[in-house]
Amino acid sequence: RMETDCNPMELANNTGFEEDSDYRDFEGTDVKDMRLEAEAVVNDVLFAVSNMFVSKTLPCAEDVAYINVETRERNRYCLELTEAGLRVVAYDFDQTDDRLQTPYHETVYSLLDSLSPAYREVFGNALLQRLEALKKESQ
Q: Which domains are seen in the chain, by residue range?
């Protein structure tokens, strides 16, 4: 099982939020806008799933956002993102099921690692390619 908190695709991770005036208010404060956090989560792992996007149907707030994800195995999930982490709240897009008691994951990597063997494989291969590239650079 691969547990990692790094993203092998961090090469092009300049999202440009700093320059965007809409987001300037969040600098230097402890308030996290979960929609921004959710967008960052999606951008980090989109390469390793079939589809992933922040829900436009379910309400986003400072303390919660919802992310729809379809794994490469074609399984659909709705994820809840809060300060506690990420967890599955439904087995379809834009849904929540209060009866579902799924565990929180600290990172999207560990959550997807537990849901999708294909994600694990793609992520692992991307990590290996990045390590090979770093090895070549240092020679």
A: 34-138 (3.30.2280.10)
